Amino acid sequence: DIPLYLLSYDNKYKGISKESLHDYLNNKLTLSYSSMNIYNECAFRYYLSYILKLNLYEETFMTLIGNIYHHILEIGISKDIDVDTEIDSYIKDRKFTKKEAFYIEKLRENVKITLTMIKEEMQYSKLDSILTEKEVVIDKSRNNIDIKFKGFIDKLIYKKVNDDVVVAVIDYKTGNPDINLKYAKDGLNLQLPIYLYLIKNSDLKNIKFAGFYLQKVMFPNFNIDKKMSLMDQRKDYLKLEGYTNKSIDTLELLDITYKDSALIKSLKQKNDGNFYAYSKVLNNGQLDKLYELMDNIIEADINNILDAKFDINPKKDGYDLIGCSYCPYHDICYKTKNDEALIFSDDKLSFLGGDEDE
Asked: Is 335 exposed, middle or buried (0-12, 13-18, 19+ CB in 10 A)?
């Protein structure tokens, strides 16, 4: 018989030396929002995905659909294009099943409507200059290691006002991402504030942020609603979702309808000048603190990665095991209860110095 202790298994990450890691990386490291978010969800998951590179990328049909939307909105937002011609060019030489081909044909009309309605939205804003698909690369090199933090921004709308550049950042989404900043202090769900960080470190100077948003662009199947027409449901669905600078001088440039916004979801001002509690607004001081938080988290993640800290530590809030959601490595890590790292949501964003509506 085999002794029981020989049958036991320790799932803990045993570690590698920093020197071995740096050699393996050829003294180069590139971080993005996606990879950083994975690291903060679970360091071991990052190790498997981005160091051992076990997450081989495979373009799915839904990924292609998202890419089509991004492509059309990138090239069509500031000039007239033939959407059908552009889609045909984008998907040429690709083979589709009958079901996929049917979906592509149905997609065309939705893309045209989305593009037209987003162009019409611009009438609500005085930010009249547009940049699309802007890449920002920030040099974070140290100790003879080439380190880059990089990201792409789908759309910037901006306006030069005296010495300032008033900017709003918009990222197109075909899914339903979580934009709440309640886990920001733990380095999670940072896509929106990361845009703040990227633009602040770009070639644009004297930035004054009007807001940062996601915009869901792929219409769902709307239910029949006697109170709202199909067109009104589409307009409501396309409203920007994110956080807005509550400074009226800045807000008036971003959205002339801000008192009951036709551009930004759930943005409404009371008669006394304050905003309703459901309005996601931040003051300039809170935006500055958010930037500092992003800088600190990025620096901490870089240091921890370079120190080869890849423990199994999926984040958990209550019963929600955030770090294991959609993780493909369950058969590798053999996570135990003791591995879970507890975090707590901060819905009032107290780490920024107060409630959102203060």
From this structure: buried
